[in-house]
Amino acid sequence: MACRTKRPQAQFVRLVRTASGWTLAGRGQQAGGRGAYLCLESPSCWTEKKLRRAFGSQAASLSSQLQERYALTSSLSISAALS
After folding, report:
1. Measured between alpha carbons, how far is 35 from 73 in angstroms, rounded to an integer?
2. What is the predicted pLDDT for the residue at 70?
3. Could you read off the pLDDT of 19-72 as tens digits, one per residue?
């Protein structure tokens, strides 16, 4: 969404709009309602600046949630690819 890159759906993380605002949906978890996708393996797409247009005031909290949850996964997959 942020970088507009086309990839298989498995390479994205889904954010879902709920009554309390935007929240991260678990991988493989079904969640109804309006959703948005972000690159799972590209932390540059998680920066607050890139998320601000779509998520407004919640961009900062979503950015930190994404970095906490997926930064380790992303760094592990990158190091595995380099090995």
Report:
1. 22
2. 76
3. 888 888 766 566 667 788 888 877 788 888 888 888 888 888 888 888 888 765
Sheet with 35-39, edge to edge strand ranges: 21-24, 12-18, 35-39
Burial of residue 37 (number of CB atoms within 10 Å: 0-12, 13-18, 19+) = middle
Would you say how long the chain is, in residues?
Answer: 83
Residue 64: which residues within 8 A CB-CB, separation 6 or more? Answer: none
Lowest pLDDT segment from 5-9, 47-51, 77-81: 77-81
* Alpha helices, DSSP H, located in 35-58: 48-55
Best CA proximity match to 45, nearest among 63, 28, 21: 63
Distance CA 16, CA 28 (A): 13
